[in-house]
UniProtKB/TrEMBL annotation, chain A:
InterPro entries assigned: Ribosomal_bS6 (IPR000529), Ribosomal_bS6_sf (IPR035980), Transl_elong_EF1B/ribsomal_bS6 (IPR014717)
Cellular component annotations (GO), alphabetically ordered: mitochondrial small ribosomal subunit
Alphabetized PANTHER family for the sequence: MITOCHONDRIAL 28S RIBOSOMAL PROTEIN S6, SMALL RIBOSOMAL SUBUNIT PROTEIN BS6M
Native organism taxonomy: Eukaryota, Metazoa, Ecdysozoa, Arthropoda, Hexapoda
Protein name: Small ribosomal subunit protein bS6m
From TrEMBL, chain B:
Intracellular or extracellular location(s): Mitochondrion
UniProt keyword terms in alphabetical order: Coiled coil, Mitochondrion, Ribonucleoprotein, Ribosomal protein, Transit peptide
Principal subcellular localization: mitochondrion
Family under the similarity heading: Belongs to the mitochondrion-specific ribosomal protein mS26 family.
InterPro entries in UniProt: Ribosomal_mS26
Protein name (database record): Small ribosomal subunit protein mS26
Amino acid sequence: MPAYEAILILKKMARPEVAKALKRATTNIFNNNGLLFGIENLGHRALPYGISAHGRRHKEGSYFLIRFDSSTTTIEVLKDEFRRDIDVVRNGFVRIRPEENIECTLDEEMKPPAYRQDVKDMIEEGRRREKYKFQPKTGLEYNPWRT
Amino acid sequence: MFPLVESSLGRIILSNKGFRLRSCVEYQSVRNHKKPIWVPIAKSKMYKNIVDIPPPKMEFEEMTALQESYTLYNRSLWKFQDGITRELEAQQQKEAIQVSEDVELERIFKMNDVENENVRKNREESLLKEWEEVEKEILQMRKQKEEEELQTLEKTEEFLESEMKRLEGAIKPEDVDELIEKALGAVWDYNFAIDKTGRISQGRHNSVAVADISIPAEPLVTPVEGTK
């Protein structure tokens, strides 16, 4: 099963209500054959802009990350569940992929063009001109026209 | 008279007269029991009546006819013989040509056989060589494929092991309440600031009030393998 990260912005509530909302979310995940791996609290913050949800205008919200594994078809179900939860202002899902090992080449890129290896290679490629070599294409191992 | 010099071959007449001579020596062949040419006819034979009796006409005609028939017969024989000879020669020539053609054909066929044998040998060698190369290539490809499969298998096993290891960190439904309480008690802030000296100040409000935010030493979530 692929790994996902659910982002939940809960409305401004007291701690027990927040716990209940998180409990509902995790229960939904378990009900849809998901595996929970952790909950992360990113704190209570002011929203970047006012968000209307479930008939109310929200200016603050509690940010939570829920990391879980589930099948790909479950995500739509969970999205629907979270959308209909009146305590959730916004929700989102991110697929967690293995991190790619990318080497830092900034030092090489900051060099002048004449010192860069890729430029050197390009110059070398531009210089190389292979002479045309006659190909008899007779299927023989020897040259039948040799005098 | 001219002086005569007799020899076994004839008489040599020497002349010293005033008229021009073609040669100083005139040769006259010896005519035995006959008079020389320049001696006149003997008187006793001067009035000898020589009667020329022609042969009978019939004889001449007969001779002519015989001669003609003989000639004709002879010619016809010669012609016949020529024809036979020509036919024989042509036949002989033909046979000779036939024989030479057969010999030539035999030689050519023999040469062709030799050439075919050489070509067959060369072809077999080249085919063997080619097949050896192909076999080598196939074996190499098979080896490469086996190695790739082994690598894939190893990778899969590694992935499965890591997944199994990760699954050990999965949270059970009965532990959710505890987890929620823990999460609500600790806020994790990914924001940080870095200055030129490399000092890192963690948290969103680090410059204002660091003490307001409780930063746990480690995130509460179980990290996925290969991710931050």
